[in-house]
Amino acid sequence: MTGASRGIGLSISQKLVSLGYKVYGVSRNPETCVYTNELFHLISCDLTNTKQLDQLLDRIPDRKEISILIHNAGLAYFAPVEELSSEKIREMISLHITAPMLLTSQLTRILKENKGRIVFIGSVAGNEISPWGNVYASLKAGIHHYARELFSELRKFGVKVHLLILDITKTDFYNHLNFEPDEDPKSYLLPNQIAEVVEELVVGDRGWVIPEIQISPELFKLKRKKQN
């Protein structure tokens, strides 16, 4: 589980632990996580650092038992294209495209042996034209297509691939953006609701699979943050 120390990643991790899974969570800042459980193991790793990423699986002693890979880590910078620094663009590319592709490649043989699953946490931004979301939305669209390609490629080997396309979800994703979810509880999703959807997808072997699902709140409302 990438991005496991907070928000959606932590909620999914807690749900999987409650179901008896041993969870290896990846986080850039694991020390910020307040959740502890004997089945929950946080690993410090900067997924934008290819050297750390290449060494990640070596730090999981029972990696050959891995049956689920969840790509959740992400961040976004929204700005006119000419105002996005090269550092921010590279960071988003590394986190949203490079890291998921490399991790998937490294784990595919194991997931084939275990008839496992890959879950991608996507975004409606990847399906729409987002104001100032030029790079972020394009990367999400790219990883959506990658998930669809993998579903087609890996299903013949018994590996189930799921793409969850999320709408507005109330997390600290919006901390450094100039907009955020509205106060109306019907206008945003909560991390535990996403975890419940993941539970429905991964529990049991029904003989069928949901390759793609979009989850949206009842209402669409956003608000601009007040400027200090």
From TrEMBL:
Belongs to the short-chain dehydrogenases/reductases (SDR) family. It comes from the Bacteria. It holds the Pfam family adh_short. This is KR domain protein.
